[in-house]
Amino acid sequence: MKRGSVLLCAGLLALAPLAATADPNYVLTAPNWGAKQTAAVQAAGGTVLYSHGQAGIGLVTSNAADFLTRVQASNAFQTAAADMMVQFQQDTPVQDAGGLEQAVTPGNDTFYPLQWAHTALNSPGAWAAGCTGAGVRVAVLDGGIYNVHPDLAGGVDTACSASFVPGQPYNNDTGTFWHGTHVAGIIAARDNGTGVIGVAPDSTILGVKVLHGGSGSFGAVILGILYAADPASFGATGCQRADIINMSLGAVFPKTASGSLIGALAKAVNFAGSNGVLVLSAAGNDAIDFGQAGNYVDVPGDSGGGLAISATGPMAWAYGNTDFTRPASYSSYGEGYVTLAGPGGDFAYPGNENCTMPTATGTVTTACWVFDMYLSTSRAGYTWAAGTSMATPAAAGVAALIKGRFPNISRGALKTRLEQSAVDAGKNGHDEFYGHGFVNAARACTQ
User: Which of 142, 286, 302, 372 is catalytic?
Assistant: First the structure.
């Protein structure tokens, strides 16, 4: 595999024109959604597909050519915009760990010795303190989760997982990598004596499919957030909401472009927060300083009250380099933008020679730079990848450990504890790359 084909898993510099969705769908917002809004949609020639009263967001459809003009003239809405498709994740190959026989007690999980991120996070310290994420629900909004993977089987709430991609179940995606499966494994791969282990191995994953092949509509992402935060509003009365939402996805836009859709997404994130859900999103892989980016914004990293997570990774870990808080070469950052940093891996080591590293049952030999990436579950088995897409679920896993340790903690207190337990890295105090610091599992559970 060429190094240039490594997946930058979150944040495409997507400034190209956006295409309208195949169906004539629209995203509308209001202070609240009620009979007035529904009547205004119908009067303008539209049909409400879904609306949330408290969030004040609706997804509607209409074949009327002048629908947008008519519905805006009703004065029933704050914003109204045609829904759009976006490439929220790059669709490129990654480095497979295929052909390797598997690897928590955690040491008997075959590939655990290759998971340097747990050392960086001090996950073993949290596990030793009894923090495993038991009872915590983490919604993974992504492209699909292979729920029968040996390291995920039993850890995915299959009854309450959902898809907002028409014609696609939550447990399907394209190719063999399956970005959502990789993300889910970072959070909750089981302690089962095989493969890898997640940061919060006893947490439960709620799979929410909002992308397919890395692309999806604003409407699908918004609906996914609302579903994870309030499944009953979709008729899923037997399903509990998520405690944490992970969005390892993102794209960059001028603030003046698609402002109504960007605002609706922020409104959905803020509703989730008001309903007790902590939302974490990838900061992006464009190496942009969003504190100085002027007109540009990354969504959902900069959406509402969510937390944007930057990425770190060692260079030449196979040679003994343990600088795990080294800023990853691709990670976006910015004062006032990034909240925390987590281990996302890197591929910046310049050599192409092979290295051999031990597993719990033998050894693995591959290019030395590959070992600097994050190894997790994939549809094909196990895959190395690097990106803020990986750093974000690592931080979400730490949040799940806190929530499991303190089940009644509020969303605000959970956020505060996650921030205050982080290890100061880089410049002293809060800074543009690490925000409040590098997440630490053991401190989060025991301080």
Answer: 142
